[in-house]
Amino acid sequence: MTDYRNFIGGEWLESSSCTTVENLNPANINDRLGTIKLSTREEARGAVEAAYNAFRDWRNTPAPTRGKIVARFARLLEDDKENLAQILTREEGKTLAESRGELARSINVAEFCAGEARRLNGETIQSELPANFAYTIKEPHGVVALITPWNFPVAIPVWKIAPALVAGNTVVFKPAEATPATAVRICELLEEAGLPKGVLNLVLGSGAEIGDEITNHPAVKAISFTGSTATGIKLYEQAARRGARVQCEMGGKNPVVVMEDCDLDLAVQSTAQGAFGSTGQRCTATSRAVVVDEIADEFVSKIVELAQKMRIGDGANPETEMGPIVDEKQFRNVLKYIDIGREDGAEMLCGGKRAEGDNLENGFFVEPTVFDRVSPDMRIAQEEIFGPVLSVLRVKDFDEAMCAANDSQYGLTSSIFTNDPNLIFRFVQQIETGMTHINSPTTGGEAHIPFGGVKMTGIGAREQGSTALDFYTELKVVYVDYTGRRREGNLY
Ligand code: ADP
After folding, report:
1. pLDDT tens digits for 327-338?
2. Probe ligand 1: pick from 147, 210, 229, max atoms within 8 Å of CB?
3. What is the DSSP string of 47-69?
């Protein structure tokens, strides 16, 4: 059992708060990892001040030197990979294979960002005037707040912290209440990598209290948030009042479109992977399958067969294919949506309740659930559930499929299953999502490829890949006149 501490100004400090939350293993709530104290607003302010005080020296540290520290962090992550994967599974519930995959992605992201430190280039621009030119410099904002969710508690913090640091910002990191252990370990490794005191500060606690305090602090110049749409939009509104920069990655309701000419087994397996992988608790999870009538019966019977065969259990067991829901609140929320689906008249083909069986009684396990004949106006077709629940919408043809697929306030990712190149390119053109996949699941991404969504899913610059540093830098334009004379022409 550990008592998690805040990391402020380079010191591991115990919070003075008396309000505590237990960090429980969602596969077995009798397994307690530790206790988190919900930090006070004053402690959150202390973290912002520490970051503020560290900013001047950090911004003046050459970018390649900053990158070297992030590169060292990547190597330490590599060395600690198995340990962190075990903590991640025990804390969040995903299977060990999924945790190892998340670690691999995090290492790639850290390596990629470390390399970007040597490419923090601007551009030189020709002038209309002789003996004049202009150039641009990328500069950091100052203190940035990084607010992260529990579902990818290693990868998401790393894909925000690494570019923020490389760009020369100092950081206040507020992870989700449910995943303090992974957050603490990330900060320990960054400390070991040689990050100067105060450059990265961790505050553990409630979003409504310290998250609110941090996002409203005048010294916080930019906020990168991943989480629910309700919180993201609130934060965006608050930040707008004082002109702070915001990047939000919020909800999703990702569709797959399945056409009659597709490789049906591939479509079924990929949809199941997208819907039930990571227990459906991914921003990129498949939550809607839009299937043309001609093959809908066969599609649903095959996917139900796969869903019923899934081995549910503790993610630490190598046999397990699907772990638990992260905590009781989310668990109840998923079951609530299953009830809503039934009440709204969707046809539940499998799952629909708490999973029972050996060693499942003390965890938050839900059966993989498939609803058929879901109509676009039903809540289970519109609202993000964040659990292993798939809604099948039957449609007449491609045009109807596109209407159904785009009938969503969200726009993160999508995929199509077809072998018709014309349909593929019509789909790519028409689909309203920030990312899309052809004949593969809606999930998955790579460290060097931009990630993000449109509509109510995403606000601000894309994360990761060639765009990873966009949010964390401001552009300064410099005009240079080397004539040594009063300017003769006019520039408007
Ligand atoms: P989820 O449903 O994934 O838990 P939330 O949006 O509630 O989504 O949480 C995502 C992150 O936002 C967490 O770190 C949480 O503590 C934080 N958070 C929640 N409410 C606020 C708020 N009002 N201001 C800032 N951060 C918040």
Report:
1. 999 999 999 999
2. 147
3. HHHHHHHHHHHHHTS-HHHHHHH
